[in-house]
Amino acid sequence: MPLGVYSFVRDSLLVRVSAFFQKVASPVEAPEKTSFGDIDLIVAGPKSMLFSIENLATALDAKQTIRSKPSYYFAIPYPELEDRFIQLDIHVCNPADFEWEVFHQSHGDFWNILGSSIRPFGLTANDKGLHLRIPEVEELDRKKSQVFLTADPGTVLDLLHLDKSKYSQGFHTVAEMFDYARSNRFFRPEAYVRHGLKSNDRKRMKQRDLYRQFVEDFVPQRLIETSEEDSGPALTRQGLLEEVLDRFEKRSEFETRLMVWREERKELAHKSETRQWRKRRALADEAYADAWITSLKTRH
Predict the structure, then answer these.
(1) Exposed, middle or buried by CB within 10 Å (0-12, 13-18, 19+), for 12?
(2) Is the dihedral of CA 26, 35, 113, 195 positive or negative?
(3) This prediction's pTM
(4) Smallest Cα–Cα separation from 57: which of 90, 8, 102?
(5) 236-288 pLDDT, tens per residue?
(6) From residue 7, how far is each of 28, 39, 91, 286 by CA, in Å?
(7) What gap in Å lies between CA 153 and CA 122, rounded to an integer?
(8) Rounded distance, CA 71 to CA 296, Å?
């Protein structure tokens, strides 16, 4: 749908959905976007204990509703056009997660781009906030390796050395957003080289136009324009780990989680050794029994 229709319908839906939820927002779209496939809203905190999706669907004049908790999808009538509909996606989150989820989903591929920058330094951003990965645990269990740091957008921008006031002003062009993303302290061109991309990044290259544009056009051009004196001070994953453990007061949790992990691995290794020993013992007993039976047969 064109920008004019999108803006009109989105603003109307924000008003109607606000009657049902305490917090309602539409993530900021990518700059220079002129065509839209659907409308996304993030909501939190139903205003009434009697809230139901059926009542919301009625208020929206939805012709069809699909439930896939924590999200719901509605077919909304297209203005002044019969038999045409607009897809409305409503994601329901906890009130405590609302600000972060809006931040994390705003500006199109912005966080896909940042994700490739912070990943080599052991940081992960997901729908719950920013996390630090424990290197030793990550090798075997990426999910268990994550130590929660913060879900405060301003704190994250500070850690990335990104200008908060500039972010709050938004981006008028794609180039402006790219320049801003590149200014984060973790940006290293090698993280965006094709052969260095992770499998998820390669999928984004195929599915996300802005991410592909950043990798294929923006990064190579900036490599040509950037001189050696523009490169930031050397930063290692270990150095950042020490910094964030102190900055977010997570050292105790980090060390405890790592100790527990090592104890679990030690216990698993012991159990594995015990199973192997029992298996060898069983095979030996079986071989002994076979030999004994064979000797008895030989005597007779």
Answers:
(1) middle
(2) positive
(3) 0.82
(4) 90
(5) 999 999 999 999 999 999 999 999 999 988 876 656 666 776 777 777 767 76
(6) 12, 9, 19, 77
(7) 18
(8) 72
Q: Which two tokens stand for residue 224?
A: 């040509």
**Distance of alpha carbon 67 from alpha carbon 269, whole angstroms:** 44
Name the least confident of 45-49, 110-114, 237-241, 286-290: 286-290
What confidence score (pLDDT) does residue 229 get? Answer: 44
* Residues forming a β-bridge with 67: 72
Mean pLDDT of the chain: 89
CA pair distance 43, 105, nearest whole angstrom: 13
CA dist., res. 89 & res. 100, Å (int): 18
Q: Is the Cβ–Cβ distance between 151 and 127 less than 8 Å?
A: no
Rounded Cα distance, 120 and 238, in Å: 11
Pairing of strands 38-46, 21-25: antiparallel
The owner of tokens 């896909």 is 112
